[in-house]
Amino acid sequence: MSSAGGTRRRWEWWHRQAPATRQTVRGVLAFLLTGLVAVVLGVTTATTHSSLGPHEADYHVTLDRQVSLRMGPLGDVIIDSPLPWPLGAEVVVREIPTDLEMTGSPMPGLLADLEAYGQLFGQPEAAIADAVRGLVTDALGRTAVAWSLMLVLLAAGRLASHGRLRDELRAALARPGVAVLTGAFVLGGLTAVVVPETRQDEPVGYSPPVLDGTPLEGARITGRLADLVAVYGQTARDAFEENEAFYALASENLVAAHEAAAEAPQDRSRQAPEDGGARAAETAGTTADGTSGPAADAPSGPPEAASSDAAEAATSATAEGPDPDPVTLLLVSDLHCNVGMADVIATAVELTGAEVLLDAGDTVMSGTSVESYCVDAFARAVPDDVPVVVSTGNHDSVTTADQERRAGWRVLGGEVVDVAGVRILGDTDPTLTAVGAGTRPERQESVPEMADRLSEVACAAAEDGDPVDILLVHNPRAGAPTLDAGCARLQLSGHWHRTVGPELAGAGVRYVSTSSGGGAGGGATVGPLTGEAELTVLRLDRATGEPMDFRRIQIGTDASVRLQPWQEFPRQGTAALPEADGAGGADPAGTDPTGADPAGTDPTGTDPTGADPTATAPTDG
Prior knowledge:
By secondary structure, the chain is of the alpha/beta class. The chain is about 35% helix and about 20% strand.
């Protein structure tokens, strides 16, 4: 169609639009185009420094459609990339000497961690979860910077050209040779950046059959690492498969034991299951071969006198007050990087209907950045709708607490928090114990000083009419002032690697959980259990905050599971409960006249010689 003057204009429909409309459309297109370019730049140049299982590593995104694991003179591991086309990644593992002749071979150290690598292969997503977060964060940051820079340049160009940037560019490109030179410059720049990133390694190396059926199936391995895998790969695979089979059986046995249990907690105020507190039901258990039945060596329940008192108190409480509003919580402690227990814990959360998972600390072993894969493994196993509340221990660190916050956990920091209607107080442990390096302060505060501070916070909350329901602290000694002052109803702790209580302490109740990672008695927490692991299910009255009852879940070294009877928490004026199997003695106040704790440590939670009471527990990893 021709205009009135007889000349034909291209894009006639465009020129019929109002100037303001055309300007808005151009602005939106420029905004989107620069954004697209910025995203491409941000994603393809993203880098991060993170961990790869037990190693530090540098990650960066490539365009070669493969994931390359560089282990220096040991060789490479190359697998097809699971990322969208054409993205890949290069991972350069640090801590591998560049000159093996001068520094000695790192192979003995690598072989010493075979069981740890077995667990790493069992949780590959958790092993790189921290790195993925780092790459995404870096890519977003680079995208934002690139996008902002391009928009600023466009704005500066329009300002310098007095709003005629398009006309100036058109005129410049119309000059002889400018368009060709500009195109060649852009093409050369793209080639220099893109070609190296898209170049794939030659298909050297080989894929050992021992990797078939594992997350590394099909991987091509080069260099000395290929010989290492050929010689020791089956050992690593055996460790991996043994670990997977053990914890899968433990989870199955937990399900079977739960189904075989003949009793369940009642929803009457502080009343024991089924029989109104007169007696505890028989312990339900599942043996290593999967058969169910009562555990012969399980305690049969509290003495008759204590049971009668409990029944009378429960009846009185029921008559005097309304029915309780129970909330179920699951307590774990001292996992020490036993990621095999992650699925067992997840199974327990599902079976018990726990609304909150409480972690009493020592989730890792030395508080290092590479142990993020332990935190991520536990976090990935817990259902998204179940909050995790943690009070870090002396084997955790500030770095560990940051990892747990990134995983979505609620890390206690000296303030009262409300989770599922339960008011919880706790704080990070002020000391740090690294395996092989001893214990040192991590902040300018001792355990007794933290204990006094928490007591002040708890008592202030009680004065305001919002008392603390649970004091969650790793070191049992950190709760004594609060319980003595009557400013918290229940203290939950770990640290001693053995069960103590529940017992009356001050004006409250203290319960110390043994290791949920199998570290009881100083056993290792990597691989199948070398010591019994324990989880504790407990219920509180959401309306009053009063502790109601609890049940221990015990996992044996043969993957068998025992469900201990439901028992009521002791209350002031009632007889104490019998100690759990293997629990050490403690006086009713939970203190010793000498000031040492029942495990023989001083009030700061450390041995008088300076050794940590758990120093012999986790030694691998």
